[in-house]
């Protein structure tokens, strides 16, 4: 087809005008699920070779630099052979477009790859099966994977093995990996990323299975006397009748007077302490009638902060100063705790963002601060331009949960966008060594370091000040963190969550930094950002 005549010149305007009709008649269209990708790639490669008169055109990474006009024609051919939803994702050169399309369907969590692996795993050698048949079946599965462009490397195989035994509750793992790969198609998903996604989902499942009320942070347990039902009544010969009993009592109705309700408020962090405050009521019937009741003498302090003089409902660490959340209470009756039934009143936690709360549409950060690796993972870089706290290391977070929708991270360049996929709590190290939890810290697999957003700290009631090369961060609760000057940046110590077991004092709400709800009295200290030296 390519000749010197203007009619057949594949770069001419006339040829491009008839390009849609020619492509429609010559090529196979890619399906939405990518099930025909192997055949589609073969057809589109042959079509490009026929049009250009060159072999292996898509393998030349410099083709778009030498012939920009011709590369745009090839890009148009590819764009016409894919669905509109996929076409919107394509940009750059023709080779970049093919790489993006390939990344949408072929990676360690690809459905077709996982299905082929499971089929090969289910192929067993039986007594009545010929050994040659068994080996041919396994060889065919390997050929199917090779045709599906599966990369036979240790990293890709390990990433596949990690996912073979996952239950249906871990379906979001594949979605997270898919989102990351679409944002950075040139970087294949590694086994480490698969492992981190599985661990994050496992931690989310663990926090949900601790209690049926794990989506909330505070409950009111109203202890009530549990009536004796028919299947819990003791045998008649185990109870000696009282001479003062009336006929109705002797006939089987147990003697019990109504108790006044004792109301306690606990946070989930204190639920384990309930076991130490419960004791059997020794003045109730026989052994089969004994019930576990709270002792008021052991509950004379606030279970939220540990101080006396008020209950947890009036604790200043349990008060919400944010916008009106409306009537979001829920009544759950007959919650069984250690054999005792309680009535539970569930209140939403004002310091933890839920899926129903407004999440940002996007997060902004400097690309150098986000993507360049930092030599010390125990240091977080303070950033005057970052809109939110971001980390690329899940070991720096607790209370991790997966977002229902990934949030894009815009950087200062026009490169591919990164995404944040999880939300958790980061812990800074105070000058005295105690941890300060920073809520609503986002996790992005593309981040190579931890960013502490100074604008967010100031807007939420904290402050920061600079004295020469010394910076002092003041949290809304008054705790102080000293930052040191390093490589034209101020860095702050960030605690690895594995170190919590070695801390000298436990993490209590008195050390908390409720960044979501700062005190109204705190005023930010304004500092000229030009003196910060942030690149």
TrEMBL record:
GO terms for biological process: mRNA processing. It comes from the Eukaryota. One of its GO terms (molecular function) is nucleic acid binding. Residues 302-316 form the CCHC-type domain. Residues 525-535 have a biased composition (Polar residues). Residues 508-535 are annotated as: Disordered. Keywords: Metal-binding, mRNA processing, Zinc, Zinc-finger. The keyword Metal-binding applies. This is CCHC-type domain-containing protein. It comes from Cronartium quercuum f. sp. fusiforme G11.
